[in-house]
Amino acid sequence: MMPGPMGAAARAEAARLSALFESVGAQAVDTSILQPADVLLDLYGEDIRARAYVTADPLRGEMMLRPDFTVPVVRAHMEEGGDPARYTYAGEVFRRQETDPDRPIEFLQVGFELFGGDPAEADAEVFATIAGALSGLDLRPSTGDIGILMAAVRGLQTSDARKGALLRHIWRPRRFRALLDRYSARTPLPAHKKTLLAAADPFKEAGPQVGVRSRAEVADRISTLREDADTRPLSEEETALIDMILDLRETAPNVLSALRDIAVDMPAITEAVSGLRRRLDALSARGVDVDALPFEGSFGRTTLEYYDGFVFGFQHASRADLPPVATGGRYDALTRVLGQGRSVAAVGGVVRPELVVRIREGRA
């Protein structure tokens, strides 16, 4: 019988990783396996239900089996911790698997999180530390920067409502693309919506009221749709620049050069591009070969929705079907949400010990 993701070898690897992170000053912490569902629902909306196990407690209300460590660690730090700080943790997380029965629903996660300090230096330290922990394995690194795309969206010449919608769906690439095409008039408004919005009284031909929304709520929604329909489409130039950012797929120095060119026509990304340059300098100072480091404009957009800057991952070089061995990134905005307005620079990453064992033993 093959050892599962919670076997002795995986736990031994988790202990090795934890010791390594502690050796660079990280404080070992733990969190409850059961987490309040309302916090995660506020962060991610109802989408999180498709990825997490939900239960009900008669006193505490709706609870979730821990889908990851980052959110509870950030909550604890913002309530009790001081900056700067660094943490490590190891334990089980739980994810529902509705499409792939071979993927585990319970697995170990070991993490390394930094709070405070210079963002570029902290990004580089987390990446280099995790890369060092995985040295000797046949892994392919990937990097990206969601902050560049977010800065580009915020700089668009369009309504705040449209920018807000695009920002909410950055982590849903298909929905983001559909909105971008609609806002740029690449996709026409469906005929039935045109008819609805053109009607002097949209309720005149309506049937009996069904569902939980009141007539006033429906009227407000129609008014919002009318305002959006009257908004001038995004220019072809702006849309093309967003496409250029999303299509970037090169070594990091070449991407930096391309982004500098894009920033000439889209000044809103200038600061984020400067942040990328500082990060590459910091990575190089830590011995990372940045000349060969891959960068993808869309990388990290299908992870949990708290990364808002640097993102990275390590994948088996020849087994793209396997989950990433390690992932991580910057999540400054999450600290502001959980810190009730107080924020701190924060970056971290997690490693899957059982995948490390499988690859090391040649079972991947």
Automatic annotation (TrEMBL):
Gene3D superfamilies: Bira Bifunctional Protein, Domain 2 (3.30.930.10). L-histidine binds at D68, F69, T70, R95, Q109, E113, R301, Y306, Y307. Keywords: Glycosyltransferase, Transferase. Residues 12-351 form the Class II Histidinyl-tRNA synthetase (HisRS)-like catalytic core domain. The lineage of its organism: Bacteria, Pseudomonadati, Pseudomonadota, Alphaproteobacteria, Rhodobacterales. NCBIfam families: PRK12295.1-5 (NF008952). Signal peptide: none annotated. One of its GO terms (cellular component) is cytoplasm. PANTHER family: HISTIDINE--TRNA LIGASE, MITOCHONDRIAL-RELATED, HISTIDYL-TRNA SYNTHETASE. GO terms for molecular function: glycosyltransferase activity; histidine-tRNA ligase activity. It comes from the Bacteria. This is ATP phosphoribosyltransferase regulatory subunit. One of its GO terms (biological process) is histidyl-tRNA aminoacylation. Pfam families: tRNA-synt_His. SUPFAM superfamilies: Class II aaRS and biotin synthetases. It comes from Limimaricola pyoseonensis. InterPro entries: aa-tRNA-synth_II/BPL/LPL, HisRS-like_core, HisRS/HisZ.
